[in-house]
Amino acid sequence: MIVILMGPPGSGKGTQAVKLADKLELPHIAVGDMLRDAIAAQSELGRKAEQYMNQGKLVPDQLTIDLVKERLSNVDCENGFILDGFPRSKAQAEALDEVLEDMEYSVVYFDIPLDEVVRRNSKRFSCRACRTVYSRPGTCDKCGGELYQREDDKEDVIRSRYEVYVENTKPLVDFYKDREKLIEVNGVGEIEDIFGRLLETLKV
Ligand code: AMP
């Protein structure tokens, strides 16, 4: 099964992606995490991506397209995958179309309003080690890592990430509607309730 999760920053798509990947025993491909790993490793990709990410801008298409194409060619993606944070632009959606060819897939769109985006993201703390997301500082329950606030979760950057989303990513809702691939899920509410809605709409 191939599921692509879309939605504004802070719509909960990352949290839901982890739960879905766990349930379906499929790899969770989170492009933001892959880019943060590249920054931590101080690779060439990381050096190129960092300035864009810290400002809440999209990393140039060709970098993310190459990254995702390579990841999807991995043997663990043979039975499907959960794609989180890609595509975020028309060029990325077209590149993904080429990779998927005539494979079956679903695109889930979590919609939440801007005030909820700001409220959630400004309270978001991530584990430096395993990337698990919390709504408090401290240490990670899973691995004991330090919980920190991402540079791009500061309020002014959140607002510009939302603008970037509206301009570049939201148009993909129509792109996938036209292909009859889009499933809308209400992203407001408790994590477990949203997950229930997600499973119901995906019929899994
Ligand atoms: P995320 O962890 O999904 O919130 O992504 C964090 C940041 O990584 C975004 O604000 C972008 O700067 C960058 N990023 C993640 N995915 C993409 C993508 N598909 N295209 C371009 N930039 C991306």
TrEMBL record:
Region (NMP): 30-59
PROSITE patterns named in the record: ADENYLATE_KINASE
Subcellular location, principal: cytoplasm
Listed GO biological process terms: AMP salvage
The protein's Enzyme Commission number: 2.7.4.3
Record InterPro entries: Adenyl_kin_sub, Adenylat/UMP-CMP_kin, Adenylat_kinase_CS, Adenylate_kinase_lid-dom, P-loop_NTPase
EC primary class: transferase
A Gene Ontology cellular-component term: cytoplasm
Protein family membership: Belongs to the adenylate kinase family.
Name of protein: Adenylate kinase
